[in-house]
Design brief:
heterodimer; A: mainly alpha; two-stranded antiparallel ribbon; elongated; B: alpha/beta; six-stranded mixed β-sheet; 15% strand
Chain lengths: 400, 186
């Protein structure tokens, strides 16, 4: 069996690039350069480690058998690795173009770095608890006497904050040696930030918290700074232009909503979900929870029942109570929408329609209202149109 | 997995919580229809505890164009037609349109107005009050005042020659008295 197989030079190179990481009782085998990962038992991990130590297939099979406590079929496992694409030629583009070394990135995520993030987070919580006047309301977004100008100026600020959040995830990933990408691109008319951290599955679970929490760590730090500046202004420690103080109020609103969203929007697999799923040592908690809640509130199709049954016992049993947490999160998101988003949208939309109802082409406010109408339409109907377009393209076989 | 009767328990519990949430939510207190269209004149049950009571006017939402013909029963206004959006509380260095200030009053805020050429020490004293009550006060110059200062809340007006302790008292007594509806003791 394994004795008749030989390992080519290219396959040796592929094996050398493979990562082996413990994940509970199992192990993750992966090729970070190809973004391909599989979960295998301990014997499989030992098999690969033997090959990485320049062992032969026979030696690797024998060692894997020792770990498993029974004979294993090394040839079949080898074929499985090939089928999963883990023995493909190394990617020529891998590990290139990353100007920030893990060593440099680690400076932001060492003991000192996390102490700073925690200090600012504690500061933000303390200020918000002690000073109700600094807590944001939906009105904070209208920081100028012109609501449309307020929204148009908040848009780039919000995008910049979102970009910094995502980039900090990526930087924390670099600190752990992950070579994922960070891209700024357009999805339809929308500017989006994409952080690829799929390689994180090759890290031991305790090392995944840094990349998962990094975005919120940066959000909390910026929130602490903004609140500190506003407090210092009120206490007379610093002087600020009045408009800067109000802009900081709008930034506080954006950051508070962003952080609450990360913990409340668990049903959308955000950062809070990643942290909790990692802590609970689950692999597919999202689907397990979704299907469990769907079963509770509606019904499951046969395919969904089969999918739920195929999910691990641990994930399914966790989903029984995690589903309640997820529903509470949904309630919190609904509360945020009613308290913040809805009054803002209604107030702005009513203003826009009032000005469009009696059009004065020579008035600046008319054209600003047109601009705001386009903006609101893009924000609220754009995603729907993109989803419909994507569905049509999929139906007629056009690649996305 | 859970058994079928428990499924009904889940459905009932979630439905009850959702209904409770909706009946408690801001949808009711903020009166969604009022948010988009404004509201009718609702007089207060008691006179203003500070300053003079001003009759509450019908308060529809208006456009920029309609604001040029809007009329009020006081200077500065304490109720009446206003823009559909409000503004963040705080210090403003340029005058704010009446239609916008009135909406801030409708949200329970206090507006403090001073003349365009007010002495620096007057503005400085008012800024300190605005900083101390930064979630309640909108401070801005006002072209309609020649001298002194004017404090407004929904249906209330206080005119003073210069800032004194009555400014703070007015803010404390009247902030939040009306918020798309009167407080029970107002």
């Amino acid at each position: 069996m394994t004795q008749v197989l030989t390992i080519s030079a290219e396959q040796r190179q592929a094996i050398a690039q493979m990562v082996v990481a413990p994940d509970g009782a199992d192990f993750v085998l992966g090729r970070p350069d190809l973004n391909r990962y599989v979960c295998v038992p301990a014997a499989g991990a030992e098999f690969v480690r033997q090959l990485q130590a320049e062992g032969s297939l026979a030696q690797a099979t024998a060692r894997a058998g020792e770990v498993a406590g029974e004979p294993v079929d090394g040839a079949e496992f080898w074929a499985g690795l090939a089928e999963a694409g883990l023995l493909d030629a190394p990617s020529k583009t891998s590990s290139s173009g990353y100007r920030i070394s893990p060593r440099l990135a680690r400076r932001f995520f060492g003991r000192a770095g996390w102490s700073v993030y925690l200090t600012f987070a504690a500061l933000a919580i303390s200020i918000l608890a002690a000073r109700p006047d600094l807590r944001p309301t939906f009105e904070s977004a209208w920081f100028l006497a012109d609501p449309i100008l307020s929204l148009l100026l908040i848009l780039p600020v919000g995008l910049a904050l979102s970009g910094v959040h995502e980039w900090w995830h990526w930087l924390a990933g670099r600190a752990e040696g992950i070579t994922g990408s960070f891209r700024v691109s357009f999805r339809g008319p929308y500017l989006v930030f994409e952080t690829d951290l799929t390689q994180i599955v090759a890290l031991p679970r305790r090392r995944r918290y840094g990349p998962f929490l990094a975005g919120m760590a940066m959000d909390s730090s910026l929130l602490g700074l903004a609140l500190l500046a506003r407090l210092a202004f009120r206490l007379g420690w610093i002087t600020l232009p009045a408009v800067t103080d109000r802009l900081l109020g709008a930034i506080v609103l954006i950051l508070v909503l962003a952080i609450v969203w990360q913990w409340a929007g668990l049903f959308l697999r955000n950062d809070g979900y990643a942290v909790l799923a990692n802590f609970l040592r689950c692999h597919n908690l999202y689907r397990a929870t979704f299907l469990t809640n769907k079963w509770r509130l509606r019904h499951l199709t046969e395919a969904e029942q089969a999918e739920l049954a195929a999910i691990s016992e641990r994930d399914r049993s966790t989903a029984l109570w995690f589903g309640v947490v997820q529903l509470i999160g949904m309630g919190l998101v609904a509360w945020m929408m009613l308290n913040f988003a809805l009054p803002l949208v209604i107030g702005t939309a009513a203003w826009v329609f009032a000005n469009l109802r009696s059009p004065d082409l020579t008035a600046g406010v008319f054209w600003k209202s047109v601009l705001a109408l386009l903006y609101l339409a893009a924000v609220y109907f754009g995603p729907l149109l993109l989803a419909v377009r994507q569905r049509l393209r999929t139906r007629i076989g056009v690649p996305s | 997995m859970i058994t079928s009767p428990r499924r009904w328990w889940w459905r009932t519990t979630v439905a009850v919580i959702a209904l409770g949430f909706l009946s408690w939510s801001p949808l009711r207190s903020w009166q969604l229809a009022g948010l988009s269209g404004g509201q009718a004149a609702i007089p207060a049950g008691f006179p203003c505890p500070q300053g003079q009571s001003i009759e509450i006017l019908p308060s529809p939402h208006i456009s920029w164009d309609e604001a040029s013909t809007a009329s009020y029963n006081s200077v500065p206004p304490t109720s009446g037609p206003h823009f559909p959006f409000s503004l963040a509380t705080g210090i403003y260095t340029d005058p704010i349109p009446d239609g916008l200030t009135v909406h801030a009053l409708e949200h329970g805020h206090i507006a403090i107005h001073y003349p365009l050429d007010a002495p620096k020490q007057t503005v400085a004293a008012l800024r300190e009050v605005a900083k101390r009550h930064s979630d309640q006060v909108v401070l801005a110059p006002y072209a309609g005042i020649i001298k002194g200062i004017a404090l407004t809340a929904w249906g209330c007006l206080l005119l003073l020659e210069k800032p004194d302790e009555r400014v703070e008292e007015f803010v404390v007594a009247l902030a939040g008295r009306y918020r798309h509806g009167w407080k029970a003791d107002a």
